[in-house]
Amino acid sequence: MSTPCDETLCGLVHDTLVELGRRPLTECNGEWPCPNLIKNTREIFSVLTPDQSRPVLELLQELSPKKLPIRSSKSLLTEEPFPCPEIGIDVYQPCQVRSCAFFTDHPWTRNCLLYYRVRQEVNGLSVSELAFLMNRSVGAIRKSLTATMKMVRKAALKETIHLQGESVVTRLEPVNICIVCEKEIEKLSRRTTRYAYCGDACYIFKPPFMIDLEKEFGLPIDRLLKVCVNNFRSMKAIAQALDITPSKLQHIAKRYLVALPE
Q1: How far apart are CA 8 and CA 28, in angstroms?
Q2: Residues 215 and 171 sit within 8 Å (Cβ to Cβ)
Q3: Average pLDDT of 28-43?
Q4: Cα angle 221-223-224, degrees, rounded to a multiple of 5
Q5: How far apart (Å, rounded) are the C-alpha atoms in residues 150 and 172?
Q6: pLDDT (tens digit per residue) in 129-148
Q7: pLDDT of 165-212, one tens digit each?
Q8: Does residue 5 contact residue 28 with C-beta atoms inside 8 Å?
């Protein structure tokens, strides 16, 4: 079964071609793939010149309402080349370096996020702009940004600990010594997983995720929390730096009587 054609889009393409003074090549047959949409769109770009940019600009604005501030398609065809800081060359046409971290499949931005930022005179992009430019959902962009912030904040915390010359904890993990109280274990607790515990009390006092934090950052938990509080302004930032949930962060802060920022 064939897919129905987007008749509204077909109509926009048809009207744009008429505005450019061209006769539409075919008519919509109501099915996809639609010869009207495909052939007429190709015809639009084959006759496009700087002097005929207005109908195409109107088409773009109609297709992406309230998504991006498309100001002038004519200027995109006539302005000076963009000096790319990544590969060190002047870009005249839409860039084809798909391996670049700033590549985006939108020719009117010359396929470049940096170009878009420079021409829009902005220091940053909103999540909705990134989603549109990178052809991804807003949820996927938010997820990527969260993962990136976690990595950046964790790296910053480790660098701070190193620069401050904090005392590093070296943990030995013999299988017959409790990881918390360091007593010899005759019979391993049922709580034992990747760490040895002598009983429930030690497990509850310092569960595996807290041992993981001490090992990764090289500090006792109470000292680690104080370094975090002194270097981050929010509880969310601390949780991201430690890569734990806010509830776990609140749990250990309460245990060690450390006041967290809001």
Answers
A1: 11
A2: yes
A3: 71
A4: 60
A5: 28
A6: 888 888 888 899 899 888 98
A7: 776 666 667 778 888 888 888 776 666 677 888 888 888 888 889 999
A8: yes
